[in-house]
Structures are given as C-alpha cells and as structure tokens.
Amino acid sequence: MSSKKTLILNKEQIHQKSKRIAYQIIEDNFDEPAIVLVGIADRGYVFAQRLQKLLQEIAPDKSFELLSVSIEKTKRNLESSTDGDLDIAKNKVVILIDDVLNSGRTLAYGLGVFINIPLKRMRTAVLIDRSHHQFPVFSDYYGLKLSTILKEHVEVVLEEFDHTEDAAYLS
Fold first, then answer.
1. Rounded CA separation 137/150 (Å)
2. Distance (Å, whole) CA 112 – CA 7
3. Does 71 have pLDDT greater than 90?
4. Buried b (16+ CB within 10 A) or exposed e, 68-97
5. What tens digit of pLDDT does each residue of 60-69 get?
6. What residue ranges define each of the domains in the chain, with the CATH number in brackets?
7. In angstroms, rounded to a whole number, what is the distance separating the alpha carbons of residues 71 and 106?
8. Could you give the CA distance from residue 27 to residue 29 in angstroms, rounded to a whole number?
C-alpha cells in the first residue's frame, strides 16, 4: 500500500455531502413520522449521529431514533451486537449507515441483523461508495461514488472518533 495520501474530501465537503444525504433521506421518506438510523460501529455510528443531528434540524416534527450495531467482520457467520432493542425498528423505515462501502460485506452483515424484524423499508447510506461490490448491496444514499483500484485504501477521519479534523483520504 502506498504511503502517499491524497485528500478526496475535506471537512467542509464532508459536511456538505452529509447535509445532501440528510435531505435525500427526508425527501424519500416524507410521509414517515419515524425513521431508525442504524450506524455500524465505529465510524458508521459517528456518521449516523451526525446525520441524526442534521435530520432533526431539517425535520424537527419527525422522530429519528439511533442504534449502533457492532459486527464481527472477520467471522464467516454473522456475529453482532446492538446498543439498544431491535424492536424499535419494527414496521419502520431503517437506514443502515457506514462511512465507506467497499465490498458490501459489512452492510450485508448489517442487513442480516434485521432479517427477523418486520420492516417497512430498509435503505443504506454511506459517505463514500467505492464500487467494489462483491455482495449484492448498494448504497441508496451516498456522498461520493469513487472508482478506485483494489489496492487503494479509503480512510475516513471523523473528529469525534479520531480526534483530528474531518477528512477522507485515498492511499
């Protein structure tokens, strides 16, 4: 892997992309009184918290509940845990959120968490979609769609998690 990092999104661009995603979520779910945002730990959850804040500013009359899902990505079987009761998602729209969509494995595992919960609709949101899908999982809402080679790595830095200014890098 190259040690050279190329900035692909700065702090302001990440904020703009996040705001656009929030507006898209509102537009697509205009009639929904409540939406459940599910962030995949760790950076996906931080991104979900940011989206929740933006959504509450845009549509204060709606409810935006937040869940964190931790997934053991290295296992062949789905092993996950949540920070709350999955029943809050029953018969509601659920938005599964992560920072980067690469192969789709993480989001596929995230979808599996809700396989036995009756949902109204499930959508996905990512800050960066790399378009290297090995699983039939695609982003419904994304900030940036980026064509990269498999050897390249996308790193998203979020202030709340990494304690440094927001940025996304390609290396």
1. 18
2. 33
3. no
4. bbebeeeeeeeebeeeeebebbeebbbbbb
5. 999 999 999 9
6. 34-147 (3.40.50.2020)
7. 7
8. 6
**Residue bearing tokens 């509102």:** 26
Q: Is the peptide bond before 42 cis (omega within 30 degrees of 0)?
A: yes
What residue type is 66 in one-letter code?
A: L
Report the alpha-carbon distance of residue 26 to residue 13 in Å, rounded.
Answer: 20
What CA–CA distance (Å, rounded) separates 122 from 141? 12
Parallel, antiparallel, or unpaired: how do β-strands 121-129 and 6-9 relate? unpaired
Handedness of CA 15, 9, 5, 100 (dihedral sign): positive
Q: What is the pTM of this model?
A: 0.92
